[in-house]
Amino acid sequence: MDGIHDMGGTQGWGTVTIPPDEPVFAEPWEAKAFAFGALSARLSGQNLDAMRHAIDRQHPYDYLADGYYGRWLGCVETMLVDSGVLAPGAVVARARTLRGEEVTEPADPTPHKPDYQPTAGGSLRQVDTPPRFAVGDRVRTRHYAHAGHTRLPRYTRDHVGTVAAIHPAQVLPDTHAHFVAENAQHVYAVAFDSTELWGDGAEPFTLTIDLYDDYLEPIA
Amino acid sequence: MTAVPRPHDHPDAALRTEALEALLLERQLIDPKVVDGLISRYEHDVGPMNGARVIAKAWTDADYRRRLLEDGTAAIGELGYSGPQGEHIEVLENTGAVHNVVVCTLCSCYPWPVLGLPPSWYKDPAYRARIVREPRRLLAEMGLVLDDDVAIRVWDSSSEVRYLVLPERPEGTSDLSEEDLAALVTRDAMVGVARVAPP
Question: What's the N-to-C CA distance of chain B in angstroms?
Fold first, then answer.
């Protein structure tokens, strides 16, 4: 999906400062949100790609205003509601109760975790077919715009690059996040010249990004 | 200008966290000991000191350096570091001619086993947006000015591959022990937004 999370190359953000001596968690709630996020796939019967997609789906306003661990908190809630572990609105209702309001909290739904069994732990898989592309091959990224999860950022779509390395095969986030199929496939590091991505006035540099086989087309 | 209202009732994050925790505890879905263990692990045991040990060893042991650049995951595993967000780690060598820098534009993927959880600047929209478009300018703003003849390579971690930068060993450190060298290596140098400063 073309959401707020797809930030590569967007403009107007200002500069970046590195705070000295930053704690791992700025506030106690961030530590808790991290832990719940780390447990979220198990609690919801989902997976890491579904977790990332739950973050992508946070409302753009919340995505920016809540910060990194706020997004983790939001995605845990989304995953638990999607799997019927908690009712929609349950967290907000409890928060309102905690702040002293008289609120009727919603009853628990019937859980409906996805019908999904991973074929192995983690995201790496063995694939029997040889890689479609070799190091040095020129490839074009697809002009891709489906509504679901993807790891092909907008700024790299419909551009020509060169395969720089072949990585271990991995499950395809686009289908894995939706429990359709693991669709394990080869993943390539693809290098782009900065002018290919940003035009003739671009700073000279090379951008390398890891792209799944489905994202690529051969150049005739 | 029209103000954009919140689309829904959205209590602050601390309160929503407290609410979620209560709901999960009441349903016996989480064990407080597991939650505390996870937090403690990433506050105390998993962090950039792990990556610094890897870098210091690579600086002092040529054979280890070769193994690290060939198969980062295995060489890092030799020092006991593995786990979530470290299924496959590749190591990028910075030299006087080539400077590597790492980002995740879509979320904030980061090599946890060697660097711990990502710092705020790595998750900042400005970093995620700009390092893939104007890296030389952004690095300079962040305090790292690179000569024009240094080639910049930016790596967007969009798959489950994670990247660790092997920074250049600073001059004047030939008599330092591996432990003393590790103390010089910073998180920022291992992402590629800084150099390792001499002692």
Answer: 53
Mean pLDDT, to the nearest integer, of B32-55?
Answer: 98
Mean pLDDT, range A27-44, rounded to an integer: 98
CB B190 within 8 A of CB B167: yes
Side chain identity at B114, as an amino acid letter? Answer: V
8 Å CB contact of B143 and A18: yes
Contact A197, A205 (CB under 8 A): no
The model carries a pTM of 0.97
CA distance linking residue B67 with residue A48, whole number of Å: 29
| Catalytic choice (B107, B120, B157, B159) | B107
Contact predicate A25/B146, CB 8 Å: no
Determine the Cα–Cα distance for residues A148 and A53; give it in Å rounded to an integer. Answer: 8
Q: What residue has token string 């697809």? A: A142
Active site residue B104: yes
Subunit contact B125:A13, Cβ cutoff 8 A: yes
Tell me, yes or no, if B107 is annotated catalytic. yes
Q: What is the mean pLDDT of residues A211-216?
A: 98
- Report the pLDDT value the prediction gives residue B5, as an integer from 0 to 100: 66
- pLDDT band, residue B2 (cuts 50/70/90): low
Select the residue of B7, B16, B159 nearest A212 (Cβ to Cβ): B159
What lies within 8 Å, CB to CB, of B146 at 6+ separation is B99, B136, B139, B140, B152
